[in-house]
Amino acid sequence: MSKRDYMNTSVQEPPLDYSFKSIHVVQDLVSEEPRTGLRPVKHTKSGKSMTQSLWLNNNVLNDLKDFSQVVSLLLQHPENLAWIDLSFNDLTSIDPVLTTFFNLSVLYLHGNSIHRLGEVNKLSVLPRLRSLTLHGNPIEEEKGYRQYVLCNLPRITTFDFSGITKADRTTAEVWKRMNIKPKKVRVKQDAL
């Protein structure tokens, strides 16, 4: 199967679903059986899944140590991972490993313990990210939460399960001008 065929067919594949498994560490995924849905996930002869979606929601993960390595063991094409659901875990930050999946378009992080709004900046390198959830994290209580996210992730079209409107973008731009100071350019003394 060519890479193009894979990209076209696996979008319809059901997710590799490890939700509600009481998983504490990512390495446990290797020995844990995923949930079975109405349609089975297709696997290669070597046992790797042919899906682009990984659901790890409603577990007790507090970090993503070894995430890339484990995903490579589970998925035939980890580079094509498009949807990661990490909602309702115990994550306190956005692990940089998530930024290595350049085809990621859906990322659910709601219901965690992320407390620094600046963590969102890490996601700006994901060119295909369109849907993001962060509600239910302590950062939601910060003033300008929604505007900050929209300013830093201008390509997303859905945030916290709500579509982004032109008015949202305008409000975010006004908020940015009022709240984010431009970086000062220092003039070298020698140049004067």
Automatic annotation (TrEMBL):
GO molecular function, one term: methyltransferase activity
Main subcellular location: cytoplasm
Gene3D superfamilies linked: Ribonuclease Inhibitor
Matching InterPro entries: Leu-rich_rpt (IPR001611), LRR_dom_sf (IPR032675)
Coiled-coil zones: none
GO cellular component: cytoplasm
PROSITE patterns the record matches: LRR
UniProt xrefs under Pfam families: LRR_9
Entry-linked SUPFAM superfamilies: Outer arm dynein light chain 1 (SSF52075)
Subcellular compartments: Cytoplasm
Signal peptide interval: none
GO BP field: methylation
Keywords for the protein's UniProt record, in alphabetical order: Cytoplasm, Leucine-rich repeat, Methyltransferase, Repeat, Transferase
Taxonomy, superkingdom: Eukaryota
PANTHER family, per the entry: LEUCINE-RICH REPEAT-CONTAINING PROTEIN 51
Protein name: Leucine-rich repeat-containing protein 51
Organism: Cricetulus griseus (Chinese hamster)
